[in-house]
Amino acid sequence: MKLGVFTVLFAGRPLEEALDYIASKGLEAVEIGTGGYPGNAHCDPDTLLGDSSKLKAFKQAVESRGLTISALSCHGNPLHPQKPIAKEFHDAFVKTVDLAERLEVPVVNTFSGCPGDHEDAKYPNWPVAPWPNDYQEILTWQWEQKVIPYWSEWGRYASDRNVKIGLELHGGFSVHSPGTLLRLREAAGEAIGANLDPSHMWWQGIDPVQAVQILGRAGAIHHFHAKDTTIDPINVNKHGVTDMQSYSLMLDRAWQFRTVGFGHDLKTWADILSALRLVGYDYVVSIEHEDGLMSVDEGFTKAVGNLQQVLLREPLGQMWWV
């Protein structure tokens, strides 16, 4: 496996400066935002698709530093019930797939999206309980009328261009768990897979090792994010895992994102990476930084050090933590 980083955390730096810094840390891959929630500070599809010389220069900037692009990422909600919002996210996705084909990048990461509860809805509706029965009716309508038709069509579009779609399993979106990912994959085809992020498994009460096993045995892991989560034992009993408080209220929240090794120990991360190897995943582990207690540089540096420690020892098959 290769160690990489989601470069959105360095959006304030020029591309080449960010790449130099990433390469200096010994990383081998970058995941680059192309629109949607991550923005396109380092990679504007309109510019690169419209100018072959700029496309070539962009590719050279990455490759000259010994790096590869693991994925292009345009996380958004193309199923948003407000059509102008949905169209903006959809257009970013389509352009990103086109750009991935031109750059020979094998994966585009995004969210599944979440529709409203009927055709004229204004806001997304994420059902989280089977009763009252209204929620089951909403869920059935969403999947049959929106989720499956959309990803069946655009999964084929990506597949025709030799691009796989890595859906990040994130609460608030229709595909948020191994089960929902496999449901969509069965309906829409094998271009659909997971951009598996353990941090979102932990706060939903899902063991990431088991998530790897479930998805990996189906060949459904297209990309992997490295981010940690800590769960407050008191606050979780007050607010539950669907805590709606702002991420900035870290003292009071039930859970919060942390850099790798600061939510779970390195034995746990070694178990996750071992499970990835066991199911045949031999691609990139891409660091994502969203730790409110650390600066970007501190969180990134500590994540790199912790993951390098695990990756350097884990392939030996030894229980180095004993």
Automatic annotation (TrEMBL):
Lineage: superkingdom: Bacteria
Gene3D superfamilies attached here? Divalent-metal-dependent TIM barrel enzymes (3.20.20.150)
Record keywords? Isomerase
Domain (Xylose isomerase-like TIM barrel): residue spans on this chain: 20-291
Mind listing the GO molecular function terms for this protein? Answer: isomerase activity
Q: Which Pfam families match?
A: AP_endonuc_2
Protein name as catalogued = Sugar phosphate isomerase/epimerase
